[in-house]
Amino acid sequence: MIHVHLENSTAKAEPFWLTTALVDTACASYGNLPGEARFTVGNDPAAIHACLSTADVLVTSAGVIADPHFPRGDLARIAPKLRFIHLIDAGVEDVMPLTWLPAHVQLINNSGVHVEKAREFLLMTLLALNSRLPQIMNNQWHARWDAIFTSAIKDKCLLVVGLGDLGKAAVAAGLTLNMRILGVRRSALAVPGVERVYGPDRLKEAMALADFVVICTPLTSQTRNMISRSVLETAKPGAALVNIGRADVLDHDALVECLENGLLSGALLDVLPQEPLPASSALWTCPNLMINPHVGADDPTTYMRETMRLLFDNLRAHRRGESLKNVVDRIREY
What we know:
This protein has helices at 20-30, 48-52, 62-66, 75-78, 115-130, 133-141, 165-176, 203-207, 229-232, 252-260, 303-320; strands at 2-7, 37-42, 57-60, 84-87, 106-108, 157-161, 180-184, 196-198, 212-215, 239-243, 264-269, 289-291. It is an alpha/beta fold and 334 residues long. It folds into 2 domains: 2-113 and 299-320, NAD(P)-binding Rossmann-like Domain (Rossmann fold); 115-291, Rossmann fold. The strands form 2 sheets. The protein has a 7-stranded parallel β-sheet. A 5-stranded parallel β-sheet has the order 2-1-3-4-5. Helix 1 (20-30) packs across helix 11 and helix 5 crosses helix 7 (165-176). The longest helix is centred in the C-terminal third of the chain and has 18 residues, at 303-320.
């Protein structure tokens, strides 16, 4: 009997709660597991110790791991049977470094469950930025009639920074729009559909070629402030930028200046330096900037369904002694 404990964070929006109903639906849909499984659901981090004492698998969010009640400093003793933790978040920066995680316990992230919604969102975003929609909306707010003519997006250059699951969704969006696609990734290995892949050391060279830049990279010690002031200043004049990755990859003060001085024609941020974004933030009033409240890649009808599909795939692999999907690399931090 394998014990799977799901610890819910009510800080999440309701469509993303871990519930008994979600477990029942998943068991009916994906429940052909080798051997038997017992599922428990909790909603109180202060009471999690009892559940962890017998759990083989923990499904939860980064917020629960970061909660003071979670026994990060004594996990091996309190959860002696634990073999993997499945985070329902794609980003894992809030639980780094993994010095609290016993060596025999693997951390799984939720990368990939949001790919289709992200692709649709980026299709919309690229078309909106190509048509200068942020500037048109700004003109509307000021009752200013200014006929802005723009050319078709076909054959324009899209630079995708980070070519994991989210980056590949951006590539798919660009291919749908018949764009030229460049990429930046840690390994600089080729990716289908990408004309050329640059290493991070050649980011400025790639920026100078791009009409659109989409940030999709995870946040690690290597990518923090990756899109810095000096990088933004090498952008092709009139380029537009999207961040659907992690906020701290981008220098927001420099972004505001580049939008104000016209170096960048527009930007859309789906991730913000503080969420919710305070009313006092200069980002709210920055010209030609659209703010999306971190919902671009989240489909409330499929996100948790795909989360449970991934969980059950890994439960089957675990019982068979096979490799798990989406294991976080402790060195790479994603």
